[in-house]
Each structure stands twice: as structure tokens, then as C-alpha cells.
Amino acid sequence: MVAALTHASVVLATNTGASSEGPLKLLPEEHFGLVVIDECAQALEASCWVPLLRAPKCVLAGDHKQLPPTIISHKAAAKGLSLSLMERLIEGYGEQVVRMLRVQYRMHQAIMQWASEELYGGRLAAHPSVAQHLLRDLPGVTSTEETTIPLLLIDTAGCGLLELDVEDEQSKGNPGEVQLTHLHVQALVEAGVKARDIAVIAPYNLQVDMLREDLCHRYPELEIKSVDGFQGREKEAVILSLVRSNRKGEVGFLAEDRRMNVAVTRARRHVAIICDTRTVSSQAFLKRLVDYFSQHGEVRTAFEYLDSIVPQNYAQEGRGERQQGTKLPPPSGPKPQPPPGRKPKAGGTKPERQKPEAARSSPDTSGPGGESPGKKEDADRFRAMLVAFLESSETRLDFPPSLSSHDRLLVHQMSEELGLQHLSSGEGRLRFISVRKKEPPQPSPPTAAPPGQQLPLPQHPSGENPVPAEPRGHSEGSGTVDLKTLHLERVQREKALREEEVRKAQEPRAGPQGNSRKKDKSEAKGKPAVKPGAGSAAEEDIDALISAAVKADSTCGFPRCKASVTALGQLCHLCNRRFCLSHHVPEVHGCGDRARAQARQRISREGLLHPGSGSKDTALDPARRAQLQRRLDKKLSELTGQRKGKKRDKEK
User: Which CATH architecture has domain 109-317?
Assistant: First the structure.
């Protein structure tokens, strides 16, 4: 050991491993001439003094603009323990003791420029080998909307994707941003980016757990970590979920500029930030980050990814219209091809976004916020268009797909204020807004009458019985289908069809005697004279369908199980099927994975375990544990004394 250490040119050790209690105690104190402490900005000053005493010269390497040492005690951190030795030397001696490495070999120039201007005085420069590299330059990656841009901001402002408000939970989570992250990861992977080259970063551990639950089973090579856990790492693409979205504008420890510096600069070719710009812009540093991405990158709203979300400023009537799924016809032109989850377009570079004629001379309005002077002009222009539409006799107004996401949000808000119906149609770049004047509410249709009180069919002006209209279909969320009413309506319709066929068949054959005799016989029996197999076959098919539906509803939904669930049965809330008592457990009939995922989500969201799912694993406070131990010992000693007293009494 002594020979190996003596003849080594370089000895590597941790700060505490260089103490006199370790292997270096075999060497004399003056053996080393230089000590280099790497990542010194993350080390406690006290730990740095252990190797410093072993050499007359020292070099501290690190970045004091990234995360500081981790201090568990807030009291100790407030008294100066969180201040690293590197920061203290820079504060005391300034630039005369600093040598900054100004050329970086990791990030695209657009990613680097923000950190350079905000934290390093604009002195950083990107090496030509990495200054313009993008995801599309990787082998096997196609050129799509996502792979041709280095900066992407997905804005959830006004979309109602608020953070979870859970009592007794210090960490934060945002399910809406989890969905957006999933869709963006899917778009990158489908474009050819390998999952191992993508990192998903969140500042809160609860959000990290929710992201892992949603993504890890599908993309096992995808790395999902907190900002603190990803320091010192790098990936080709980084997706950053900022989580915070609330009406108070609270950002928590996102205001720590060093944490955001670490999060953004982990990316090499592409970084996507998912956040509520209205919330995070309440802090000056984060507002400058949002403004930088708005000016130098691409801005999208959550509306472009999730069609099911409802803006939080919509009225209840507007929500009902969107939930019904009413679709307005798209504008004239080629029909858009809606790819699921913003599926990237195959081949070709991203087309340049066209602006309407009236907006080409105005500044860019794609960024969130309200700082651009052209945004007020656009808002006034949209309001004037909507007011003119209200005063005109037109019933519909279509806005072009060339509007930015911010402009579309303005149109939605102003339409709601003016009492207009507003609906977004199309996908991605071809998404447009249709505005209509609200129509007076239509009277609800009468309910079906009981079988014994069926009203006669209305007579056509020509005297013929019209064919009854098809019954309205039931939506997926409307509950169970009324089979009895449906059957009665179909029987009535078949009866009208048979009478129509009889009338048409009798017109050309009114003369012959035999036909009139057959007609009299059929009328005497009360049955219409129809061809065998025409109406009866349809009626038998309908009866068979109804009987099959009734039988399926009263039989266990488990394959090959014929047990009746009419009296005893359990409805599974995951698949909405009824099972017998032997197969009603989700793990038995195939819903186990969904049940476990739902339970994990509930635990993550509510922070507690429900009866039947075990006890919550919480560590007792040391003082409380000691108190309980003393009470237990006292009780045991009392019981022991009582047993000894009873034993002596028996012996006497």
C-alpha cells in the first residue's frame, strides 16, 4: 500500500477520504504539491479543509452559479454553512482569483445564450461543433416540428391545469403537465429520438413520482429525475415541468436562479419547458426566462395538445357545448389530417407560420404575457371584429388558422364576454376558431309514452303514413340504454313499413276476386298480408338482439363464466362490467393494472392510505419514541411486580 501510494503521480480521493484517518495517513504530510477539488461549489467548506491542509497550493474547480451544498438544517444554512469556499473566495477577492472557461461543448447556442446573459455576464460562447446542432441531426431522426427547434415553451395559462392542492403535503404535483409531457415524449420518440437520449426533469418529488408512474412502463429507458438529482448530467433533449400553477402566483423555490440554471442547461439539442406563464411570470427571474423562450423559441398552448381541456374562464354554457363534442365544419380548403397527440409530420422542414394580412405588420404576439405593444392592437382588432359580427346579419364568423396561440386565447375570452358561441376545430397548425351567435334554447322533446298510451302517428298532408324517424343514439356517458322504449319504437316503425307495403301491393291488384278474398281473411285475423320473411325476419332479429343484450347484462362478464348476476353481482368501476362474486376482484378479471395505477394516483394526490390498503409508514419523532419507551418500561415493571407479589402470597 505504501509503495503504491508513494509511486503514484495522482491520487484520487473524496474530501473526507483524504483525512489522516484514511489510507493517506501512510504518506508524510508534505508529500503532495497540489490539491485539486472538483465540484467545489457543491461541497461544504468544512469538508474542503480536509484535503487543503495536505498541499501548499490548491485549485478549486466548479460552478458557483449552480446548486449549492445540500444542508438539512435550515438553522445551520442561515448561519453560513450553505456558503461554499468557492463563493467566499470570489466574494472576498473577485476576478483576480477566477479563471473562467468561456467555451462550452454541450449546448446549442440558443440554449446557452439565456444562461450566459442571465448568470455569466454574456461571456459564454458555444463551440462551432455544437452551436447549431439539433435533434434532426442525430442518426435515424426525421425532421419534424419538434426536432427542428432548440427551444419550446408549452403554455398552460388559462387552461385550468392547476397544481394539486393537497393538505399536509409539502411537495407539489400537476397532472395536466404530466399529460403534456407524455405527449411531447411520444412525439419525440415517434420522430426517431431514442428514449435514453431524453430526460424529464421536475423540481418537485411528487411530480417526479407521477411522471414515473405515467411514463416508465412505456419508456423504460427514459430518465426522470428531480433538478437536484440531475445536476452534472446531460441529455440530447430535456423536458422541464415547472409544476406551479395557481391563482396566487406562488412559485416556491422555483425562484432559486441556480436551480433553473441547472435545469435548462442539461440539454444539448432541445429543451421544452411546460409551465403556466401567468403564474411563473410573477417572479422577475422566471419572467425573463419566459420572455427569452417567447422571443427565440416556439410557443404553444396546451389547447394544441389536449382537446378535452376547458379554459378556466369559460362560462358553464360554453363548457356544455364543448363537452357535447359539437363540431363546426372546417373552412374551405384541403381537409387537415389530425395526428394523435401532435404526431410529427413525416419529412420536410417545419413550414413557416403565416400571419393574416392585418397582422403581418404588427409585432409577434405568440408569446405569453402582455408586454408587446402589438398585443393591445390585436386585442382591439379582434374585439372590433366580434362587435361588427354581432351587429351584422351573419350567423357565423371563422378566424384563420394563422392566429397564434395567444391570439386564439384572446378570441375565446372576448367571445365569452360578448355572449357568443366559440369553438376550436382542427388539429395543430390547422386549428381555427368558429364563432356563432347563440340560439334560443330549443324545447326539450317529449318523453316516450307508456306502451298502453302510444299516440297515433301523425298523418302526412297527402294522407300517407310517414316512416318514423330513427331514435336518437345514446352517448357514451348517458348511462344504460332503455331497451324497452327502443323496442317499442322499432316495433311501431316496422308496423308502419308493413302497412305501407300492403297498401302498395294492393293497388295494382284491386280487381281479382282471389286477392280480395285473401285480404278479407287476413284482415279478419287481424294480421297484415305481407310476404313471408320480410317484416317477420327483421322483428325476429330485433327480438334476438334484445334477448341477447338482456342475457349479457344478467350474466357475469368474465369469459366462459355463465353465472347469473341478476341478484348477486358486483359492478367494476374501471371497465363498467358486472361480475359474479368469484370474478369481481379487478386482479381476477383483468383490471389489476388499472386498479393499482388508480390507487397509486390517489395516494400521490391525497397523501394518505385508505382502509384496506395497509398502514402509512411514518417514522416517529425521537422524543416521542423515547417517551413511549419509558411508559412501556414502567408498565412492564409494574406488571412484573404484581406477578412477584402474587407468587409470594401463594407460597405463604
Answer: 3-Layer(aba) Sandwich (3.40)
Place of cell 413557416: 352
Domain residues of the chain, as ranges?
2-99, 109-317
Q: Which residues contact 582 (CB under 8 A, 6 or more apart)?
A: 556, 558, 561, 563, 588
The answer, as to whether pTM is greater than 0.85, is no
Q: Is the pLDDT of residue 47 over 60?
A: yes
526: left (phi over 0), alpha (psi -120 to 50) or beta: left
Burial annotation 591-618 (CB, 10 A radius, 16+ → b, else e): beeeeeeeeebeebbebeeeeeeeeeee
Please, which contacts does 484-488 make with residues 24 or more away whose CB atoms are closer than 8 Å?
Answer: 485/448, 487/542, 487/546, 488/448, 488/451, 488/454
Round to whole Å and give the CA distance between 408 and 412.
6
pLDDT tens-digit map of 141-197 = 999 999 999 999 999 998 888 898 766 567 889 999 999 999 999 999 999 999 999
Q: Residue 542 has which C-alpha cell?
A: 330485433
Report the 10 Å Cβ neighbour count for 90. 16
pLDDT in tens, 68-117: 888 888 888 888 888 889 988 988 888 888 898 999 999 999 999 999 99
Write b or e for each residue in 261-298: b if 16 or more Cβ atoms lie within 10 A of its Cβ, otherwise e.
bbbbbbbbbbbbbbbbbbbbbebebbbebbbbbbeebb
CATH number, span 2-99:
3.40.50.300
Q: In 194-315, where does DSSP find H-type helix?
A: 205-215, 257-264, 277-280, 284-296
* More confident call, 22 vs 167: 22
2-99 matches 109-317 in fold: yes
Task: Quote the pLDDT of residue 485.
Answer: 66
